[in-house]
Design a protein that fits this description.
alpha/beta; 2 domains; five-stranded mixed sheet; 14 helices; 37% helix
Length: 403
């Protein structure tokens, strides 16, 4: 077990098997007495010639869990076809039908001149963040309590805290899994919402469908179980990608959130959705602040069926993680195996300093576990294009040797 917050991991259990690259390079640095000489030995691609999709030339951005292969061609085509139509409101119900069918939920009949079909099991948001906002506004006010794993995404609580809600943070277990036993034990008379992020963020660890189903069955039915599935489409097994939506049919207290920002490459368009029983959807709709634009929803309708794009998105993510793990193993770094689009790694040095050097010296951006989750020596890195991944690994090697 690696201490989530410890800046200096004890290495006794795997010292002999995982000395690897990093310790050898540090030893080399001492014997050579020159960082420049060591840097030459580990020289590799730098960010200057890299041209990633949607970022300025020479910038490697692996910090935002964005899709590196660019947008879906179908989504782009849909936007181009509607460029001269955004003087009109979008009252087409295609997106609600597509989403409900995707998850095996009842399809509500559209009504002319409405923004969403009455009785829908789907609500749209400007990204899934708006669904999180609506949930907090609807259920977490004036001393109500919620439960969430720590470290966790915390999106619901960031809104709920402004409404006077309180939270019980439940530490992850030694396998970086959400501890359902302790979460269940933390329930009291003020608990209104339990948040389950699946896969976890920042861990990327997946909760199995059976385990989640058992947990939901044991939670009192008056408590909302909110399952945030922003990254579940990156799971290795197709059966795991089904997620919690089928549980809504039997459990009126289950709410599921998903987004088009990740697997479908639409982070800049801001389209997400929530799934729940119609009575819960009505309550969420009453607590939302807006809706996605016409161009966003047109792109989402087109992109949801672009399975070729989604398969390519998964593959580039998996390939990037395979490349990372091979290099982390060689460098002797601990990491958390991921079912998401990102990975957690323990660099055993101050994360603030490592992140700063990666940015200032190599134009590489990664997530800072210390700043976001008090994980003092941890980074969260998103899979990018292969050339971006190579730039990151080579920059990280140089930063770790020089720190």
């Amino acid at each position: 077990m690696v201490d989530l917050k410890n800046t200096a991991s004890t290495d006794t259990s795997n010292n002999s098997s995982r000395r690897g690259f990093l310790k050898g390079m540090i030893a080399g640095a001492i014997s050579i007495g020159s960082y420049d000489a060591v840097a030459q030995m580990i020289s590799g691609p730098n960010a200057r010639p890299v041209r990633g999709w949607g970022v300025p030339p020479g910038l490697v951005r692996l910090s935002g869990n964005e899709m590196p292969i660019g947008p879906s061609p179908r989504a782009v085509e849909a936007i181009l076809e509607n460029l001269y139509s955004f003087n009109r409101y979008n009252r087409h119900m295609d997106i609600y039908t597509k989403i409900a069918e995707r998850h095996g939920l009842p399809v509500a009949e559209p009504v002319p001149n409405t923004f969403f079909p009455p009785g829908a099991w789907v609500t749209l948001g400007c990204g899934s963040s708006e669904v999180l906002f609506a949930l907090a506004s609807a259920y977490l006010r004036d001393g109500a309590e919620m439960i969430e794993a720590s470290p966790g995404y915390g999106g619901v609580y960031r809104t709920a805290s402004a409404y006077g809600a309180k939270i019980r943070w439940i530490p992850l277990n030694q396998d970086f899994q959400q501890d359902f036993g302790k979460m269940k034990a933390a329930i009291n008379e003020k608990t209104r919402v339990i948040v389950v992020t699946n896969p976890g963020n920042p861990t990327g660890v997946l909760v199995s469908s059976d385990e989640l189903k058992k947990f939901i069955e044991e939670v009192p039915p008056e408590i909302i179980v909110f399952v945030d599935e922003a990254y579940i489409e990156f799971a290795k097994k197709p059966s795991d990608r089904v997620g919690a939506a089928p549980l809504i049919l039997d459990h009126a207290n289950v709410v599921v959130a998903r987004t088009f920002s990740k697997i479908m490459g639409m982070a800049g368009l801001g389209v997400g959705y929530g799934l729940a029983r119609p009575e819960v959807i009505d309550k969420l709709n009453a607590n939302k602040g807006g809706r996605p634009s016409m161009l966003s929803t047109k792109a989402a309708v087109a992109g949801i069926d672009d399975h070729d794009y989604q398969n390519r998105a998964r593959q580039v993510t998996w390939d990037g993680q395979d490349y990372f793990t091979k290099n982390f193993d060689a460098m002797g770094l601990d990491y958390v195996p991921s079912q998401s689009s990102f990975m957690l790694i323990n660099v055993r040095k101050d994360a603030d300093e490592v992140v700063r050097k990666l940015k200032d010296e190599y134009n590489v951006l990664v997530g800072n576990g210390k700043r976001r989750w008090e994980m003092n020596t941890w980074l969260r890195v998103t899979s990018g294009l292969q050339e971006e991944n190579e730039v990151f690994i080579n920059a990280l090697k140089k930063v770790l040797v020089s720190s």
